[in-house]
Amino acid sequence: MGHDIFEITVNGIKLVLIFLLMVQAVPMLVWLERRGSAFIQNRFGPNRVGPLGLLQLGADAIKFLTKENFVPTSAKKALFYAAPVFALIPGAVAFSAIPMATPVYIEAFEMFGQNWGPYRFLVQGYEIGVGIVFILGVSSLAAYTILMAGWGSGNKFSLMGALRASAQTISYELALGLSIVGVIMMFGTFNLTEMINAQQGPLTFKWMEYTVTANWLPNWGIFFQPLGALLFFTATFAESNRLPFDLAEGESELVAGFHTEYGGFKMNLFFIGEYAHMMIASGLMTVFFFGGYSIPYFSVADVQAWALSVTQSEMSASILSALLHFLSFNIKFGFFLWTFIWVRWTLPRFRYDQLMDLGWKTMLPWALANTIITAFIIYFATI
Amino acid sequence: MPLGGVLFITVFIALFGAFLLWFAAKVGAKPTYRDPVKFEPYECGIPSVEKKDTKINVKFYLTAILFILFDIEIIFMYPWATTFRDSIATGNGAFVFGSMLIFLAIFIFGLFWEIKSKALEWD
Description:
The structure holds two protein chains of two kinds. Chain A is mainly alpha-helical. Chain A has 14 helices and six strands. Chain A has helices at 5-40, 56-65, 77-95, 131-139, 142-153, 156-179, 181-187, 192-198, 226-239, 251-254, 264-289, 300-311, 314-344, 352-382, and strands spanning 104-106, 109-111, 114-116, 119-121, 202-207, 210-218. The longest helix of chain A is centred in the N-terminal third of the chain and has 36 residues, at 5-40. In chain B, helix 2 (58-89) packs antiparallel against helix 3 (93-116). In chain B, 14% of the residues are buried.
């Protein structure tokens, strides 16, 4: 985590801060979802508690906290309590690996009568060389928490819901994993920061010896991998159990799926886990297909040079450029989070056999086709 | 060294979540009404008639096995995909591309055989 005590402390605080930011984003997203659904369905939504219903979040939290702690007699206690806690882990651990801005440079300074060397802090939890594999691997651990909850509740609705949910998650993981093979082929790396660096400048297509440049468009992955982007985004809906793929809940046939026996705060932790998956999906969409934290039309180097000319100090320049890139990342990130909500209130739910058919018989072959076409194009364009 | 960070945040979240659950249980309302029926697993208000862990459709097991097969095949493509451009640049492109096409042909054959043998039919 670092070379000396200062670096380790800052990195630790950063990790905790990212986790807490994710947790506090959940009530805001819930508010946005309720207001957004009201907007889409032409009703009011929460508008009584505080201005625009904003204090509804606090009211909900208090209500969750004051609920009775209920455990059914048939439950396996250890699993029943462990499942909601473990539901928090995969989301936050995977999200910490997504780069959110350019690194911050801290000059050497003196504190407690000791010299502390210059530091370079990344605006992400930790940088992992095999970024994509790590994120996919960790975030798919969520299937275990669902199974723990379903098995531990000792209720047949929970068990059936958990089995359905895990079968759905693993089926769509195939399409998810295969849809980004094209992306990896295009960038030739697993590292997310290198991917972002490769997506800078104006859109440039290279075919044999010809080069076509479109100055009015940024060099984003979506223009090279449109089918991959569509498949990836669809599969992440199923991964995070969101409508139109929320068969895990299926109120009409399974009561509430794997969290039938959960109430109050335990249920809330599952909710945070689900929203964390939405955040990972949005973050990865941004990084793979929409240039990550980079600002369209301005490359990272441009912004850093501009920041240096404004602030005249390397340290403040790095902080300013990190802030600007963080803002740019959050705009793209927020757009995808909104798309999740938008889709939820626009599309109806699938039936379970349709869901499995779509995953195995439609998305998997299309993802394969995308891989093969990309391979052919790269091979014949660069040979 | 990212491993330290991963371990740190995992332990932190586990403790944080456990604290939240403990806190919520402590602050939350105390049950005033204790009836054994209340603590039965939920079953639409009728007494539980069926054993809770029984009769799981074998389809789920089959799906999981097929998932593992295909997922491993996909993971094999990842290292190939990272080095594909480099191999073309160093002149090994034809060999690397050809061998992956054979692998993909087996993959596609497996997928269509699986669909044809009705391993993926849900009713």
